[in-house]
Design goal:
This protein is α+β, with helices and mostly antiparallel strands and about 250 residues long. It contains five helices and five strands, in the order αββββαααβα. About 70% of the residues lie in helices and about 10% in strands. The termini are far apart. About 5% of the residues have low confidence.
């Protein structure tokens, strides 16, 4: 029995988990509900920086103040950049907008990655019943993996450097463990799902090929054996008949 259905089912669970993690990361800063109001990319001491709050958290949607450990994000909008100069109207610490494009493209890439992850989730039903479905789902999942990996890489590059810049200015700063964990865990889930779907498709093809070849040998073997017996009988019977005729003559 081919292991393809089992591999496809595990892959579906991984893809669903990746899509859920990406979706939770997107909700951070957009909805003022627990637990999503605890999700952020970077928390830093921004006291005295323009019109910033004493403590600021950056999400996909806004730079949020913090109250009782929760995000307070007024005026949310998509693709909000990590750009203290533009966010707070100050040139302190950074003196430029070096992370603006990185964090703006993050939002576009994560949306594309989530779209293909959802498509792979629906296509995964075909992977359970067919080898072609496994390869098709694997291809779709690999596209989601690409965009999610780029998103996670941009996130890490921008916010780790941003944290270091705040610390270099003698300000406290820390990364959001939930968002970083969710984004890289989604990469791992999509990678494993892609590999397992490919393996399931390849193993399904090998199993089918082996079965057809084995069946073909058995068929031809029986046919050859039948023909051989028939030919052997055609030589034995006339010889025996000649001997019997010779004995009668004697």
């Amino acid at each position: 029995m081919t292991p393809r259905p089992a591999l496809a089912l595990v892959s579906l669970i991984l893809i669903a988990g990746a899509a859920l993690l990406i979706f939770l990361t997107l909700l951070g800063g957009a909805i003022d509900k627990n637990p999503t109001n605890q999700f952020y990319f970077l928390e830093a001491n921004t006291e005295g920086l323009g019109d910033a709050a004493p403590l600021t958290r950056w999400t996909f949607w806004s730079s949020c103040s913090v109250t009782n450990g929760r995000n307070v994000c007024p005026g949310v909008r998509p693709a909000y950049p990590f750009d203290p100069r533009g966010n707070f109207g100050t040139e302190d610490i950074f003196g430029g907008r070096k992370y603006f494009l990185e964090t703006r493209f993050m939002f576009a890439f994560v949306i594309i990655g989530l779209f293909f992850a959802v498509c792979a989730l629906f296509l995964g039903v075909l992977a359970i019943v067919s080898r072609i479905g496994s390869f098709l789902t694997s291809a779709t999942c690999s596209i989601a993996l690409f965009f999610q990996t780029v998103t996670a890489a941009l996130m890490t590059a921008a916010y780790v450097q941003g944290r270091d810049a705040f610390r270099a200015a003698d300000r406290t700063a820390s990364l959001g463990r939930y968002n970083f964990g969710f984004m890289w865990a989604a990469v791992a889930c999509l990678f494993l799902a892609t590999v397992m779907l490919c393996v399931g498709g390849v193993l399904g093809r090998k199993d089918k090929t082996y079965s057809s070849r084995t069946g073909g040998r058995k068929f031809f073997g029986r046919k050859k054996s039948t023909r051989s017996n028939r030919d052997r009988g055609s030589f034995i019977d006339p010889e025996r008949q000649r001997r019997m005729d010779k004995e009668d003559d004697d």
